[in-house]
Specification:
Helices cover 37% and strands 30% of the residues. By secondary structure, it is α+β, with helices and mostly antiparallel strands. The protein has one domain: 2-Layer Sandwich (Beta-lactamase Inhibitory Protein, Chain:B, domain 1). The longest helix is centred in the first third of the chain and has 23 residues. The protein is elongated, with a radius of gyration of 18 Å.
């Protein structure tokens, strides 16, 4: 009985420690939640909703990508963490402003 109680305390302590660590980091989101927050948003709106990206690639004239590291997880694969979430922006045909058109998870 003591061993069961001890393991519960250890698990609770570990969960609390992870919570503290992740509280200092950006919010972890499921793939669906992350995509819903950024799809069809401007670059300014995406930055406001999910924060600044770890990397920006604007080397292609037709698209800009923002890469986020360790921010998402895949519910369908047992909550496995994704190493990257890549938001793909394209310029709008009418106004030329960047809009998030796709999200890729790696």
């Amino acid at each position: 009985m003591f061993e069961t109680m001890r393991s519960k305390v250890v698990c609770a302590t570990a969960a609390f420690a992870l919570g503290v660590v992740f509280a200092g980091c950006s919010e972890l989101l499921s793939r669906d939640d992350f995509a819903a927050r950024v799809k069809d948003k401007s670059d300014a709106e995406v930055a406001k909703v999910v924060g600044k990206p770890a990397a920006v690639d604007s080397s292609k004239p037709e698209e800009v990508t923002w890469t986020y590291h360790a921010r998402t997880f895949n519910v369908q694969e047992g909550n496995k963490f994704d190493s990257k979430a890549v938001v793909v922006f394209a310029k709008g045909p009418s106004d030329g402003r960047l809009r998030a058109v796709d999200v890729r998870f790696e």
